[in-house]
Specification:
- This protein has 336 residues and is of the alpha+beta class.
- Helices cover 59% and strands 13% of the residues.
- It has eight helices and seven strands; from the N terminus they run αααααβαββαββαββ.
- 23% of the residues are buried.
């Protein structure tokens, strides 16, 4: 019974060493695991022990000698020939973690710089327009001298709505930058249906054919997943507006052996030469007057995907439409 206990303990040791494999020299790690395996086989051989001169007894002792020899060889090779490898490997891992943190901070700084540089245009410009409309209302509408009061008020409300959307987008972007995903099983199909139903309620005059694949699930943060789908589907809804027969589709496909989610539309599309600007804050690929927005939606979508260790990319053709593809990394559950 003791031999089986030793084998079980060594199995746990193999698993533990496997989890920390990157902390060992590859050659030494293989020697260590091989030594443990030989020890396990030796212990199992001892369970078949009959007498001192029995073959299994000899096999067990020879395997133990081989195991100890391998362990000694690995330790000598690792400690004498490469004595500083383990120390420097730990330092290297620490440096890589610090470099990753530095890159994250640099990206946050770039976003802050882009935000600061856009303040004068993206926030101050709408405020100037609001001020102008307010002056017109004050001077013309109150005195009943202008028949276009309704137009002034409408313009004022539109600019207020633009600022409200911009602030909301900035708050979402900021929260995602510091939020860790609280993952659980999420029905993306139902979520997409709810988002589209809300868009139809807001735009009852539009006729858009929608196709949502049933039974799409993912293990993801529900709030972040909703932000991601809402941004992608809202973009599809917005950029199909000039089309008489608008069509939006949400589904899954397989690429390189993995399940990939997509949102496809037959909208205005864009030039793929500009694709690298998609995830830059406050960048717009279309006329601001034709298509409203703060220029933060796709930046926010990428933040959500990055938080789930996934990928997001686009395929598009001007006048034909756009497909947004995304994965949710190691936590993706695919299709139910």
């Amino acid at each position: 019974a003791s031999e089986y206990a030793v084998v079980a303990i060594l199995c746990i040791a193999v698993f533990a060493y496997g989890q920390k494999r990157d902390r060992f020299d590859p050659g030494f790690w293989r020697i260590l695991i091989l030594s443990i395996v030989f020890t396990q086989i030796a212990e199992l051989a001892f369970t078949l022990y009959i007498d001192v001169y029995g073959i299994m007894n000899w096999v067990g002792h020879y395997l133990k000698l081989l195991s100890f020899g391998l362990l000694y060889f690995g330790m000598v090779q690792n400690s004498l020939q490469k004595p500083y490898d383990t120390l420097f490997r730990d330092l290297d891992h620490s440096m890589k973690r610090e470099q990753a943190r530095v890159k994250q901070l640099e990206e946050m700084n770039r976003n802050l710089e882009a935000f600061s540089s856009s303040l004068s245009h993206d926030i101050r410009s709408p405020l100037q327009v609001i001020r102008s409309y307010a002056e017109l209302i004050a001077t013309s509408c109150i005195a009943k001298e202008d028949d276009r009061c309704d137009e002034y008020v409408k313009g004022l409300l539109e600019r207020i709505e633009h600022i409200d959307q911009l602030v909301e987008s900035l708050l979402r972007l900021a929260s995602i930058s510091v939020q860790s995903p609280n993952v659980q099983r999420v029905n993306l199909s139902e979520m997409a249906e709810d988002i589209i139903a809300h868009l139809k309620m807001q735009n009852p005059q539009r006729e858009v054919s929608v196709e949502v694949e049933d039974g799409i699930y993912a293990v993801a943060d529900p709030t972040l997943a909703h932000i991601l789908l809402s941004n992608l589907i809202s973009n599809a809804w917005k950029y199909t507006r000039p089309k008489e027969s608008a069509h939006i589709e949400f589904g899954t496909t397989e690429q390189s052996g993995r399940d990939v989610f997509y949102v496809r539309d037959n909208g205005v599309g864009f030039n793929m030469d500009d694709a690298e600007r998609l995830f830059e804050p406050f960048q717009r690929l279309h006329d601001v007057d034709a298509f409203e927005g703060a220029g933060i939606g796709l930046v926010t979508a990428k933040k959500v995907v990055d938080a789930h260790r996934g990928d997001i990319w686009f395929e598009s053709e001007e006048g034909v439409g756009t497909t947004a593809y995304f994965t949710l990394g190691n936590v993706s559950a695919g299709i139910s």
